[in-house]
Amino acid sequence: MCTDVISPITRQVAKEDREDGTPSVDIRLEDVEDCLIYDRHGVSVPFKKLYQDGKSVIIFVRNFLCYSCEEYVEDLSKIPKEALEDADIRLVVIGQAAHYHIEPFCSLTGYPYEIYVDPERSVYQKLGMKREEKFNDSANRSPHVKSGMFMGQLKSIWRAMTSPVFDFQGDLHQQGGALIAGPGPRVHFYHCDTNRLDHMPINWLLQLAGVQQTLDFSDKPKIIDV
């Protein structure tokens, strides 16, 4: 369903823009507002429900077996609830697996906030998220990924083999990204990951969204600057 209000077009402000001059990407939220996403019970909601009434930080992960996504979401789980409440923002993770993989992923990562899946990858595709990995020697590695690539991939394979339902919990080639949007169709920030290590630093995202504290993710979340 389309509305009479034209949503703004936003320029992607991403690490690659700032570091190596890669052209920006423009997105329109009206292209994805009615795409259906699913909660852990398989109940569908339109994507616009995430941001129409307030500001949301929305993280798209590659797949639920991806070791770097697991470790990134583990750090998202350390964000104190009061930090989000004080800034009046929602934190949402979106994967592209079947909905029944949500509960085990939350148990694994300790993630306590909102999470949905886009099994058809409709939102991923319409927002222009990449479906291949590109590694740049000059790119910064995610500060939230602790495992090396070899051991990380072994962990992912082991989890796939020991999962009650043997599947890859999403398209293995699909990359993720980050979006800060709302209230309404306003987009504050958008970034497409180029590879599994290209996550936006969490503190950077939170500060763009209005969180005043800087958190230390080295172990337990500690406020190191106010």
From TrEMBL:
Gene3D superfamilies associated with the record: Glutaredoxin
InterPro entries in the record: PXL2A/B/C, Thioredoxin-like_sf
Name of this chain's protein: Peroxiredoxin like 2C
Species for this entry: Sparus aurata (Gilthead sea bream)
